[in-house]
Amino acid sequence: MGTRTIFTKNEIKEILLNYNLGELICFEPVTNGTVETNYFIETTLDKFVFRYYEERSKESVQFEVNLIRYLKKKDYPCPGVYKSKHGKYVNFYNGKPYVLFEFIQGVHVDNPGEEQERQLIEMVAKLQNITRNYKPFYKNARWNYGVDLCRKLARREAKRIDTANSREKLKWLENELAKLQLPQSLPKGICHCDFHFSNVLFKNGKIRALLDFDDANYTYLLFDLAYLIEPFASAFKWDTWENFKKTDSILDFSKARKTVKEYMKHRPLSEIEKRHLFDVYKLSVLMDCVWYFERGNAKDFYEKRKIDALNELGRGKFFEKIFKKA
Hints:
single chain, 10 helices, two-stranded antiparallel ribbon, 326 residues, five-stranded antiparallel beta sheet, globular, alpha+beta
């Protein structure tokens, strides 16, 4: 996690001068969750969340703001954004962009139940339905998840680490990327790419809002479904993976089928999506490998065991286990 900026009371007051949102009463940093700097702010008129983007470009932040405004118009549950006195949603302080978000009352759930999981799956599917035909501005300002990006970031990490192990891991990853089959006709749109319960607010057992679109990008619509399958059905846990043999099941397929079936109630998958969920799921694992590139020995590490298990199963059997018994 990068360095977060510490703001003083006078600095927060200075920022609020750009808005017609009342006088500052109190503020406090939000220390968990996103890599950006976040503050809770209360004024004489309302409560807000101030987000200061530490490493994002103006275009990348504008991508996020445009998306959120689009989603709000479609009644999707997410925090709205406020514009300044000058009509701008993205403003700058000390050379870095910031946005003022609506504060939504709710709680995070550490141990979600079956109904809460069902609601999250529905929210994922609805996001893909809404954004399938959305044409984002500043699309290229984001890391759009795909083979090219995965390869580029892996090469960067291997060069940065510069060890025999990192070079061997890169060679393995590039070989696995070459095996993926991702037809150009696979539908694309906006995926949140961080559908974790820490980014969901509940109130009275119902989802109030999806938070943190910092990783949202233009990619295969299946990507969020792949990320949903992972926490709900993965047989591999990052802290216990060494206890698994390579022949163990990569997934609890009964749970995976249940997740996909619930998703398809809200967004039916095309035949080509069904056939290539295997490849997008593998891509999601390889993207995770990039984020944790220094972890493990190149001959045997967490993501490699998952990919090896998927390769052993194969695309056809994966399809049958997910869809033929659904």
